[in-house]
Predict the 3D structure of the following.
Amino acid sequence: MAEHEREELMDVAPGAPHDSLMSETLSYIIGLGLALLLTGISFWVASTGAIWGPGVAMGLVVLAIAQMGVHLVFFLHITSGPDNTNNVLALAFGVLIVFLVMIGTIWIMAHMNVNMGPMPELTNLQMQRG
Amino acid sequence: MTSAEAPAVGLTHGASEDTGLGHRGPESKSIVVPYGFWLFVLSDMVLFSALFATYATLAHAADGGPISNELFDRTLVAIETLALLLSSFVCGLAMIAARHRNLVWTEIWLLVTGALGAVFLGIELYEFAHMIGEGAGPQRSAFLSAFFTLVGCHGAHVTAGLLWIGTMMAQFWAKGFQPHIMRRMMCLSIFWHALDIIWVAIFTIVYLIGTL
């Protein structure tokens, strides 16, 4: 196998720099701009009254996930290219576990809270005594 | 060696040679070490997911004490967020400078990275001290225990990152751009970017959704 072919086939690690100084720096600047934009929108969405109240929390979660994506792509250089297969597979597994732990816990604990919590009257009694 | 002689191992599809498995042997250390560190960072995120789940479960268990609406100041959080985001960006610049073997700019950008991280940590400690002074310490309610565990764990990571940045600067200064020093720098940048990703989740869930 020719030496230059070996070069092309190398894997890359997360955060590995691009080839040229310009494209590397540009990647970080685009990432910073997008992250600033998404952060700004998040704080604006949380503070403004212009958006339907119950939708705000979901909108914030979507914005946060988008910003994490920006960080992964522009700062950690995770791409869909063949040299990134291992990084993406590891990330996918991590995301799977994170979602299982978080959504599973919140789901189960919310049901437990509803089904096994004290009766409303009892709560009131306790509050009056306290 | 031709691909026909290569054993069919792992994820290689037929004659495809793009997955880094099998016929070429293991990748170089400059790939394997940051990849291993990437796995550590991902498992660290799994740890944080457990803390997030705990926080989400206990967020309303204030035991009659202060709730998040009364405790959190969005302006301070915005400054913290900005400091950490800029810090992550500058860490990328330091990585580029190191890659181009420029000692002065590597040290300068690492110093700026650390300084912005210190600003973030200072604001966080001020917030913690202020809350504890008001009687809203971790022992006050389950909500506050979960809050201090989650945000404090992130702050502890940032503290470790600051120490790492300091030792990184010293190593570049003393040893220059040797391969093993560059590998450490790669791991540091992965670590620092990951901390910013976790902070995005914290400021969204704890500080913004918590104070809606």
